[in-house]
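Look over this record as teaching material.
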Amino acid sequence: MTISALGSALTCSFCSYKSTHPKADQMCGNKTVNCSTGYCYTATYTKADGVAVVERNCANQHPNDKDCPNPDETCERRTKLLKLKSCLGVCCKTNYCNNYTPNSATGVMATKFVLSSMVLVAFRFA
């Protein structure tokens, strides 16, 4: 199901980088993407080899990969599939709301939902 705001699409920050990239490249600039799905997301995860990854994008672009509104399920699925050490996903529904990087969750699987001005945080041990 596609959700879109009346009048115009949501604008989300857009970038991806790894901790193995040079420090100067480990940042997001002002890239954005128009999003008609109704959710922006930010995800950080640490792969089994210790490489940390940051992603910001429009959520649910692909029917088989539902990042939002339930990023904890996405983290659980990706952790099992990719053997991740940690995963933290955040979903939000306002323009540029994913323009930050959640803290690392090494050893803990944490998920934050940001819906308008309400925040719900759930912690689970991996």
Q: What stands out?
A: The first strand starts at residue 10 and ends at 13. Confidence is low (pLDDT under 50) at residues 1-5, 104-126. Residues 71-82 form the longest helix (12 residues). Residues 10-125 form one domain.
